[in-house]
Amino acid sequence: MPASKTPIYSALLANIAIAVTKFVAASITGSSAMISEGIHSLVDSLNEVLLLLGIERSKKPADDRRPFGYGRELYFWAFIVSILIFGVGGGVSFYEGITHLQHPEIIKDPKWNYIVLGIAFLLDGFSLITALKEFNRQRGSQPFWAAVKRSKDPSTFVVLFEDAADVLGLIVAFLGVFLGHELNNPYFDGAASIVIGLILTAVSVVLARESRGLLMGESVEAEKLKQILAVVEKDKSVGRVLRSPSIYMGPEEVILMLVVDFNNDLSTTDINQAIIRIRETVQQAFPIVKQLFIEPGEDSSLLSKPQNEVLAS
């Protein structure tokens, strides 16, 4: 089921609006922390742009340079986004937190902080709800973490985790400002920035791990592969499928190789015709299989014998 781009556009518009709000507040209050937060939101906006770029580039048709297509462009840019979340998002938050702990400043009037945090919470909350609805549509009845691990479309879960981290970060930032002002203790502000950095780092690690797995190549899910093999083995010319390596090149793009034990009474012409027939049947039933390679395998009766008996025969 192809993913919708709506969560990405929602997150992009929300982050741009939040960045503008933070920069306006920074110009009024002169707060360096607010400037850093504005930069953080701009980086989040860049993340959505990179995901959209990956989606568009992944749609390029195969050519002589990339005979298997450009589907993995999306996986590459999703991995870059996960690194940016850690390097810039987490890094800026850690830096601001340590700076505030080294040079604490008491918050005299948190009004603008509350206004900015409130607007950001509303916008990020709306973006999070949009991303969550799309993710739930994609995962169906699967458990949440199982769906994340099995998902082949990073554009959905990257935006979801980024929005969730932003909302958690805003809650922590509010608590830091509120406790710092009410208790007249500036160290809460710095501690809140460090906690936000830890949240972003944790999210980055999870996203990097999942994106890395997709980038390196993952095979078709066991249940789906079982369905494909059942279709193949229904063909009258097929004895059984011996091997079936596969790899995802994109969320809706699979390369599949089948090593098939054809019936012994078939001629070369019969096998060639069967290969064409099986390819058409599989690709019609499973459009996700963009490229299907079929080759005749060894006699299954030989494969079932010990190695010395095979050599002797």
UniProtKB/TrEMBL annotation:
The UniProt entry, under InterPro entries, shows:
Cation_efflux, Cation_efflux_TM, Cation_efflux_TMD_sf, SLC30A9
TM segments?
6-25, 74-95, 115-135, 156-179, 191-208
Write out the entry's keywords from A to Z.
Membrane, Transmembrane, Transmembrane helix, Transport
* Domain of life, source organism: Bacteria
Membrane topology summary: Multi-pass membrane protein
Instruction: Please list the residue ranges annotated as the Cation efflux protein transmembrane domain.
Output: 10-216
Location of this chain's protein in the cell? Membrane
Q: Which residues form the signal peptide?
A: none
Q: Which PANTHER family match?
A: HUEL-CATION TRANSPORTER, PROTON-COUPLED ZINC ANTIPORTER SLC30A9, MITOCHONDRIAL
Name of the protein this chain belongs to: Cation transporter
Its organism's taxonomic lineage begins at: Bacteria, Pseudomonadati, Bacteroidota, Cytophagia, Cytophagales
